[in-house]
Amino acid sequence: MSDSLPPRRTHGSGRFSSSDLRRLGEGTHIEDGVLIFHPENVSIGRSVYVGHQTILKGYFKNELIIEDGSWIGQQCFFHAAGGIRIGENVGIGPGVRILTSVHEEAGRELPILHAPLRFSPVVIQPDADIGVGAILLPGVTIGQGAQVGAGAVVTRDVEAYSVVAGNPAKPLRMRPEP
Fold this sequence. Notes:
The chain has strands at about 25, 30, 35, 40-45, 50, 55, 65, 70, 75-80, 85, 90, 95-100, 100-105, 115-120, 120-125, 130, 135, 140, 145-150, 155, 160-165, 170-175. By secondary structure, it is an all-beta fold.
């Protein structure tokens, strides 16, 4: 091992108590096996469901906010280094990944792992639905009432009430008006 490599540190166990959270709304249910890191920067609204084995990775700065009435499926991974805001009544299917940081391009002399990080928030506006296994990349906004298909990789903003799918996610249609 090279002397120039930084020592690695633990991120902690992810175990938490409800009093550790910045906010925990009434009627919320967090299943067994959920891990929450930096709970002091995690706010969860009223009547939210968080499924088994989900990892909510708060960060020492920025916030992870889940607003009232939202539903998070099992085995999701949310990394809130750049900040995450999930609006009211959002459905997020099992296995969804939300990432808010990326390594900058630093040239071949520096391993990508050691390149500086760039942080960008992810916002999911109210009433949206994110399909099973979708991946939302740093800096995207999912518009109100939009639907992201299963397995989609979202690399750019999604228009309100649109339906997107694929890798990279592309618009398929607009949801019909009532």
